[in-house]
Amino acid sequence: MRLQFPSGVAGAGSRTRRPEPGPVAQPRGFLEKKMAIPRLRHAVRTLFEVPAALRRLSRACSTFHAFTDVLRLPKRQMTKLVFPLRELERQLTPDSRLDLHVKIFDPSLEDISKAEAVFTATSRNRISYLSSAVRLDHAPALPSPEGHTKKMNFFKVGKYFTLVDMPGYGYRAPEDFVDMVETYLKERRNLMRTFLLVDSVVGIQKTDGIAIEMCEEFALPYVMVLTKIDKSSKGHLLKQVLQIQKFVDRETQGCFPQLFPVSSVTYSGIHLLRCFIANITGNLKTDGL
Known about the structure:
The protein is α/β, with parallel strands linked by helices.
């Protein structure tokens, strides 16, 4: 499946059919006005929340939930956690490093640190569950702007945006998947971005193609997030990333050119993805895009 970005962001460093960088327009996708993200396959919360039990693990398996903890790490380990594509890039010969678009979105550590405030729950920045909807006509009326999921779940992230966790596709999709998801994508006018979660261990599967074709057909801006990067060896992960990058470059038009590899176990790539979200929703201006 293809990920699509808002029209003002998708074009950076992309082919001629991709829009040029500019202000984030009112895009179509899974980002609700100030943003909604679908978790087409996995629980979105795995991207933004860290179970308390994981924080009790050893340093080697730590999720590094707080970015202040990440900044205290040795430079090589910090880079691996914050910029996983850079780490993979080290394994390539100089001539082949251009195959990974690691500089499309390249914020500073200061920008990433600022973005953490958007995703940190406080008394003034509440992150709360709003409602669920079986179909679009059941969706909650939001003020403007604003594993195996059976419904669309709406989460309000402070004053910044609303995140929409959407049901999966393929053989485990709910019976009313078409009525629910396709209609939402075509008609939800306050959507900003769609994020497609692809298992980096197995790569793009036929079921992913359903979501990709949907985003392409509806001309939605989307982003590809590669999950479970902790499950593979460096060699296998690099092979998968290069194959998926080639697919994005050759087969898609609305997909943001840079991939976002992440792990909900080690927290690798999560801080960068958060910063990207804060940026495209207009909540953080960076020089990285």
